[in-house]
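Example for tutorial group B:
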């Protein structure tokens, strides 16, 4: 008897429907699986054999079993096919009626027949809903994640036995009913008010948070660069609803979704170590998976000790910083991952760290200093909007009792600035000023004659590239938004220009 069951495979951060075909014939007992399965899918034979044997009311057929995963030219990976494979065999043997094609089965099986959670449930449900699949049977821990998609019915199950009885109609599963969302309180971080001095660095972080601009903090060891970087997550605006689903979809594929709080509401803050490989940061592998820049989508990618990262990793950031996505091509597939992130980097001004420091003498030779500066290329530095020097503070400033503005007040201004941008970009795919293209720049960043002359003169003196020129305009627009100004004036441009003078 032949049976067909619907499931799905994740491709990048999208999903493709998969039809599991099971054919059982009277012949020497043997198991065949075709359709480009990987090792984890091939090993499912032993898991589903034990799961079926340990499920009352069904038996493992002592016959020839042939499984086909269609389409046969798409690579199948992971353990999420277990439930669909088991149900295809159960239905082919006649132990349960064939389910409709509009029902999708997802989940990994234990040897005793319990369902274990799988990754990529959110993109699978979202993609298959658009292709006419409206019913999903998933492991109980994945139910809340699947329930984020509207217009589908989700049935959480604990065991293979529960699913078989549901398909038979003997004991139906209860559909998942979304409860009132409770946002878990994030752990309190460092507040801007707790950091002494550094007004220029704090201002740079505020502008970066408001417009999504890239920042480079440069200063001697112990000046507070890393501490300032950690503060940025506390002044970022919350994710909008479409952004939250977009980010959660990425984290679902990466297997990083919390079952108790599946929807991400805070912007990601990723901080890979400088020993991370190009694949870990950019994404890739034999079967492309998202890297740190994709996990930082709509959030922040913090690269501490910026020049210590391998040159290949840094150069691989150039295209995503410009385009907002990264294309990973392999022999088996070519996948496009979103990567619209804010780059926040920190570095010492030289190998010993004390170049320009009044308290310590720099011990670096000119050749050492030149090699250090060449670790980060000019084209990459040109893509950084805000270059900020973080000097060492004297002891009396560190002990000052006067606190600066708290993060909550800064975040309020950032949220208002982002709302102005949302109103400006309504009807487009743009989210923040840093994403404006030339067409939007001409429309939303028009300058009067005096301001335009200032920008042209400064661009000539500073020898700004065309890219840097346009980035100054974007930063100027953000500074104006923070002040609630409709037009960009000379003060906004002057402030944006001072951040183009590279620190260090």
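The residue assignment follows.
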């Amino acid at each position: 008897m032949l049976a067909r069951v619907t499931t799905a495979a994740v491709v990048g951060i999208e999903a493709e429907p998969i039809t599991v075909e099971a054919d059982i014939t009277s012949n020497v007992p043997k198991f065949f699986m075709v359709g480009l399965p990987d090792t984890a899918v091939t090993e499912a034979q032993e898991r589903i054999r034990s799961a079926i044997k340990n499920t009352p009311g069904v038996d493992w057929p002592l016959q020839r079993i042939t499984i086909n995963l269609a389409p046969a030219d798409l690579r199948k990976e992971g353990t999420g096919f277990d439930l669909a494979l088991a149900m295809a065999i159960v239905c082919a043997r006649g132990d349960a009626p064939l389910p409709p094609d509009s029902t999708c089965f997802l989940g990994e099986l234990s040897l005793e027949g319990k369902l274990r959670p799988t990754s990529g449930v959110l993109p699978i449900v979202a993609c298959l809903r658009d292709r006419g699949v409206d019913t999903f049977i998933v492991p109980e821990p994945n139910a809340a994640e699947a329930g984020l998609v509207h217009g589908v019915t989700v049935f959480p199950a604990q065991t293979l036995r529960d699913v078989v009885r549901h398909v038979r109609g003997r004991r139906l599963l209860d559909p998942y009913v979304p409860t009132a969302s409770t946002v878990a309180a994030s752990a309190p971080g460092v507040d801007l008010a707790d950091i002494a001095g550094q007004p220029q660095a704090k201002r740079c972080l505020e502008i970066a948070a408001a417009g999504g601009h890239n920042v480079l903090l440069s200063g001697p060891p112990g000046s507070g660069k890393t501490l300032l970087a950690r503060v940025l997550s506390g002044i970022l605006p919350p994710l909008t609803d479409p952004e939250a689903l977009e980010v959660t979809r990425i984290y679902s594929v990466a297997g990083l979704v919390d079952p108790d709080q599946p929807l991400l509401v805070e912007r990601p803050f990723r901080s890979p170590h400088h020993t991370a490989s190009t694949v870990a940061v950019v994404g890739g592998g034999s079967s492309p998976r998202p890297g740190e820049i994709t996990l930082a989508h709509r959030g922040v990618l913090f690269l501490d000790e910026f020049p210590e990262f391998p040159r290949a990793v840094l150069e691989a950031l150039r295209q995503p910083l410009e385009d907002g996505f990264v294309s990973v091509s392999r022999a088996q597939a070519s996948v496009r991952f979103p990567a619209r992130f804010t780059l926040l980097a920190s570095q010492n001004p030289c190998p010993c760290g004390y170049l320009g420091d009044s308290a310590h003498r720099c011990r670096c030779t000119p050749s050492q200093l030149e090699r250090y500066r060449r670790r980060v290329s000019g084209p990459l530095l040109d893509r950084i909007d805000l270059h900020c020097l973080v000097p060492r503070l004297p002891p009396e400033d560190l002990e000052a009792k006067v606190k600066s503005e708290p993060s909550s007040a800064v975040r309020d201004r950032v949220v208002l600035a982002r709302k102005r941008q949302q109103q400006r970009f309504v009807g487009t795919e743009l989210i923040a000023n840093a994403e404006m293209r030339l067409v939007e720049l001409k429309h939303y960043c028009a300058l009067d004659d005096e301001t335009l002359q200032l920008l042209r003169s400064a661009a000539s003196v500073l020898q700004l590239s065309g890219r840097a020129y346009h980035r100054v305009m974007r930063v100027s627009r953000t500074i104006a938004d923070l002040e609630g100004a409709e037009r960009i004036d000379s003060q906004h441009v002057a402030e944006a220009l001072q951040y183009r003078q590279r620190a260090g």
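The longest helix spans residues 407-424. Compare this with the pattern of hydrophobic and polar residues in the output above.
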